[in-house]
Amino acid sequence: MKIFHLSAECYPVAKVGGLADVVGALPKYQNQMGVEAAVVMPYYERKFVQENEWEVQFQASSLLGTRRFYFEVLKEKTNKLGFELFLIKIPGLLDRENVYSYPDETEQFIAFQLAFLDWINWSQQSPDLIHCHDHHTGLVPFLLYNSSLYKRLSAIPTVLTIHNGQYHGAFGWSKLGLLPEIDITKTGLLEWNGAINPLASAVKCCWKYTAVSPSYLEELTVKSNGLEYLFYLERAKGTGIINGIDTEIWNPKTDSMIAESFSIQKVSVGKQKNKEALCARFGISTDRPLISFIGRLVGEKGADLLPEAIKRSIIAHPGGVNFFLLGAGEPVLQDELTALQKEFPDQCSVFIGYDEALAHLVYAGTDFLLMPSRVEPCGLNQLYALRYGTIPMVRITGGLKDTVLDFGDDGGYGIRFIQASVADIVEAVRRAVELYPDTAKVQSIRKRMMALDFSWDRSAKEYINLYESLKPAI
Ligand code: ADP
Ligand code: GLC
Fold it and tell me: Nearest residue CA, atom 11 of ligand 2?
């Protein structure tokens, strides 16, 4: 079975968040299970691209409305990531550094999808299935089944995975002309709420869709930024499959990005050494419980609650708890957190920016990881925390609800709270501060967490079963 994963991000080529981690890992595990899974993504002018060798697979030109654009499909020569990796390079659109936030984002991702379809059409490739990830690749199912240009490909099944249903990539009808020749009687399949909505279109046109956790699949029908009714209507096509983690990259025994590697048997010593390294780097004392946050500084992650919640917690536990925050995002929040550090330099340290290696050190060296998310389709941070013996403190939503059990319950290991609110965070901090001195209990929780298996083995297989269920077509 030959699968093409289509995605805007893939670790380590270009990462903004968890989408990259998933698309950088799932195909690797699928290949190990005997499925030929390749990744096709936009070209970005980044370190991985510059440092590796590429061969040109295909060159052609296509039309974005009336604008002709040239594109190249480049293949990484060695398959070093454990799967075939193709980049689509389009001068002026897909040859830049950043993944998102260009003013012509709509044109950028439409051109990416058209180039992909033209490539497989003209080069006579016929994957058995196309697996689209998020709205950036959401027009592919519609175009495959409703454009005379791609008739040859129109029997190929498509699966859509929703990593984040908050973002749809919607744009106005004035841009319809950017799409190639389509069956004009089918434009309703592009539409939601008066606009062309790539995520909605993908949900309507794909053969099956998945959400990245069972709870998130349900939540999409009540909280998806306007698509609730669509998810309700289409629910028979949906499945929830929890993400795995790449246990080769996220392995405290072999991780070269942390200060001291450690196994489950050496968890206490190992975590202490990493905590010392982290605290020394940021001038924090090691003798208090350390609670960290890693993530995009946006409302979805509950990052706006952090300044007030941390302030109140520090006041409630003077000299009794430390905080470390690693993130980038909304400028107002970045400023508020920087101000918080100035106000409480002894108990709160902040690193504004994106730093992959530092994130590894934080998972290894912190005692608790706080995730007060308002929306969390799956969440990978809590899974990395578990693997590194760090107790997750999570607001129970989406994948957080499905993966973290409270230490107060049988077999549990985390701290769960119900509301994304300052009060609930402060209460969770209180529980963490109370738990921390009980070293025997903390030790047994750490061991329990590290023994959990959130590897891709099970979930990669679930995706393969889903592909196979689409068989006679495959
Ligand atoms: P999302 O994709 O919604 O941001 P996930 O929990 O799925 O959330 O994945 C976030 C990923 O991005 C994790 O690998 C996390 O370690 C990483 N990450 C987020 N912010 C930063 C940062 N500032 N520096 C380093 N890594 C980060
Ligand atoms: C999205 C979600 C996150 C999920 C990730 C990978 O970015 O916000 O919860 O873990 O995709 O599926």
Answer: 163
- For ligand 2, pick from 212, 216, 373, 403 the residue to mutate: most ligand atoms within 8 Å of CB: 212
Nearest CA, atom 17, ligand 1: 17
How many residues are recorded in the chain? 474
So what CATH class is 2-244+457-468?
A: alpha beta
Asked whether residue 472 carries a pLDDT value surpassing 80, the answer given is no
Same fold, 2-244+457-468 and 264-453: yes
Cβ proximity of 416 and 396 under 8 Å: yes
Q: Mean per-residue pLDDT for 349-356?
A: 97
Parse the chain into domains and list their residue ranges. 2-244+457-468, 264-453
Between residues 305 and 125, the one the model is more confident about = 305
Q: Using an 8 Å Cβ cutoff, are 456 and 26 in contact?
A: yes
Q: What is the pLDDT of residue 124?
A: 86
CATH numeric code, 264-453 = 3.40.50.2000
Cα–Cα distance between 430 and 426 in angstroms, integer? Answer: 6
The CB density around residue 201, as the number of other CB atoms within 10 Å, is 28
Q: Which amino acid is at 405?
A: L
Distance 149 CA to ligand 2 centre (A): 33
